[in-house]
Amino acid sequence: MTTRRIGRRMFLVGAGGFTLAVPFLPSLTRRGEAQTMGAPKRFVALTTEHGGVHTAHMWPDESLADQPTTVMGQHTIHHGALRPTMDSGDVVLSDVLRASSALLGPSVLSKMNLLRGLDVPWYCAHGSHMLGSYGPGSLAGDEGAPETPSIDQIMAYSSSVYETVPRRRSLGIGPSGLSTNWASPETRSGAIETVPTTRGTRALFDQIYVPTTPGPAPRAPVVDRVLESYNRVRGGAHGPGARLSTHDRDRLDDYMERLRGIQASMTATVAASCADVTVPTEQWDSTDAVYGPHANDPGTYGRFYQLYNDVIVAAFMCDSSRIATMRCVDDFHGSMDSVGGFHEVAHTANAQPEREAMLQVTNRNFFQTVYLDLVNKLDSVPDVGGTTILDNSLVMLTSESGPDTHINDSQPVVMAGSAGGALRTGLYVDYRDRTLEFRGPQYAANGRRPGLHYYGWLATCLDAMGVPRDEWPNGAGQPYTGRAAIPGWLETAHPRLDQIEAFSTSSLPVITV
Asked: Taking a C-beta distance cutoff of 8 angstroms, is the pair 305, 369 a contact?
């Protein structure tokens, strides 16, 4: 009998001599049920850097949230309808949250919520906690709390969000990644890695757009072309694959499953509404259009991100993706370089009012030119049953920090869309307990009050998007494994820390239908 030698590097051989390299093998999956009929749900998360906007400038007056509700048996929250004022032609919710009536009109206002008083009870650096991954750099990550996939990636691989494999499970926008996922998402295995982003609006568009005109006949799937060879390599008790360890057999299966996913995304069909999408003529790249001669020009930044908004809208119209994240690290003020730059301003704004005023401007400009631009575009596109795409979406805006950079009490959340009726809208919700204050000198001057856990908001997003709890990372109805380390000073400062931990995996009261 001839013995075939199996090397550490193998090739699968298919019809016509087609070969496919497989991973190194040291020793020598499934799709879910289709979602219910109706409009698909979409999710978008936009985040800005640093935070540092003081509560008096970020939020409407607390008296506008005048309806109390008691949670946890003793913690009273408040809510009320969004009631803007007018100032010089602007619709005003706060110093930051204001815009012209063309952007912040009655339709959009009725589909928005402002959520105040959501606390992340540990130090957060420049990580991905905004979407639920502790990550290196946060106190939680430094103390060994396990990293987890971000909520957008849990959605992106949920059979409740996608009934078939789309062209792109998620769109990542920005110079640095906001999303994290397993190295092998289909099998929920491997290390937690940062999900790469795409730089350049046309490059991203080309990944989601499929012309509706007929093309050449599709080629046989790459996996099918090497299937016989794969079966021989994987083998059974008597084939060459018998020398494979269980670990390597799993690696080979995982590799083929990932190829199937890539193949499926490349051959995914698009919705009929994709015929209305216009191929963009502007092809801006983040390096030459924004970080070149136009650096620190808020107008240029706004146009650049609006082009990304156009790609998101096109992806949703074509149904070639339903998930998008955008991380903005740019200065939408324009004059911060004169005082040390965006980072320096954010880290000194708590003690220098003129610098905090700069942060108000940069956050207001992003709210107007990027967030409201996207929300209005989504609200202008018709969807199933007389709704708009915005009606069936959840579009959130948050920042890296709360009122002080890297201190995350009252991390801001502005949201629009009801995720297909899963959420109530038109509300200003204040989750703080107004009878308590944080303890400690760093809070005393501002009268800041403890609220509920920010991760309750992330649980709300997963619930609203219809992701079953057995698909959450640990499969037990919780999005996060392990409790982050809480610094001693915060343990002392937060009067209700133990109680709010219980709300970290519960949908937030008042807004959940």
From this structure: yes
> Is the C-alpha dihedral spanning 475, 478, 479, 483 positive or negative?
negative
Domain-by-domain residue ranges, the chain?
40-179+206-210+274-501
User: What number of H helices and E strands is found in the chain?
Assistant: 16, 18
Query: How many CB atoms lie under 10 A from the CB of residue 258?
Result: 17
CA–CA distance, 394 with 375 (Å, rounded to integer): 10
What pLDDT score does 497 carry? Answer: 82
Does the CA dihedral 479-482-488-494 come out positive or negative?
positive
How far is it, in rounded angstroms, from Cα 400 to Cα 52? 9
* Residue of 281, 307, 368 lying closest to 332 (CA atoms): 368
Query: Which CATH number among 3.40.720, 1.10.4030, 3.30.70, 3.30.420 corresponds to the domain 40-179+206-210+274-501?
Result: 3.40.720
Nearest to 311 by CA among 197, 398, 474, 231: 197
Q: Please choose, from the candidates 79, 46, 96, the residue with its C-alpha nearest in 3D space to the C-alpha of residue 375.
A: 46
User: Per-10-residue mean pLDDT for the chain, 513 residues long?
Assistant: 38 46 43 50 95 94 96 93 96 98 97 95 78 62 63 95 94 84 88 85 85 57 61 60 66 61 48 68 59 66 89 93 92 86 90 94 96 97 94 97 88 97 98 89 71 92 93 62 58 80 86 90
